[in-house]
């Protein structure tokens, strides 16, 4: 449950104004997939992405910008994970890379997860069915016993295809509503 600071900079660089269109292209970009699977170094990722997207910036300049995209936990995420953890085992499945993980690894929020499944360590990315199957296998659980909450519809569809209970939630409030709806946590009286 992190805020991705690269959406607006990438929209400016690419000229793609629609969030959904940009996410679709980003998630389907072979260079993003390779990098987030841990299959190539940052410099190769930047050179390939700049070339494929015809960005008017050098690979080095792109990588510098990419490295500075501020990621931070969403407000209220830490409290929600703490509350959820009182009832069930919690984990995160994140499409991420070595550059962005350097800052995220130090967040107190990350220490609350019982399991951390990181794409660059798994060698797989959402929404590929294999990543969900691998997570369920490592957890030793049936896909139907997993509630997967994600803000991207492509990732939710991927989870549904392998039998997860998958829900799209944009932000902490919607994630809370999803957890209340399935009885994991109680509705707050606030």
Question: How would you describe this structure to a colleague?
Answer:
It is a single chain. This protein is mostly helical and 190 residues long. It has two domains: 2-68; 73-181, HAD superfamily/HAD-like (Rossmann fold, 3-Layer(aba) Sandwich). 51% of the residues lie in helices and 12% in strands. It contains eleven helices and six strands. It has helices at residues 7-14, 19-27, 30-36, 42-53, 59-68, 77-85, 98-104, 119-122, 129-139, 153-161, 172-181, and strands spanning 2-4, 71-73, 91-94, 115-118, 147-150, 165-168. The strands form three sheets. Strands 1-2 form a two-stranded antiparallel ribbon. A two-stranded parallel sheet has the order 3-4. The chain has a two-stranded parallel ribbon with strand order 5-6. Helix 7 links the parallel strand 3 and strand 4. Helix 3 packs antiparallel against helix 4 and helix 4 crosses helix 5 (59-68). The longest helix is centred in the N-terminal third of the chain and has 12 residues, at 42-53. The chain is globular.
Write a concise keyword list for the protein shown above.
11 helices; 2 domains; mainly alpha; Rossmann fold; two-stranded parallel sheet; 190 residues
**Largest beta-sheet details:** 2 strands, antiparallel
Main β-sheet, spatial strand arrangement: 1-2
H/E element sequence: EHHHHHEHEHEHHEHEH
- Strand residues, percent: 5-15%
CATH superfamily of the largest domain: HAD superfamily/HAD-like
- Give the quaternary arrangement of the chains: single chain
Low-confidence segments: none
Which CATH architecture of the largest domain would you pick?
3-Layer(aba) Sandwich
Instruction: Tell me the overall shape.
Output: globular
Number of helices: 11
- CATH fold field value of the largest domain: Rossmann fold
Question: Roughly how many Å is the radius of gyration?
Answer: 17 Å
Count of individual beta strands: 6
From the N-terminal CA to the C-terminal CA, the straight-line distance is 21 Å
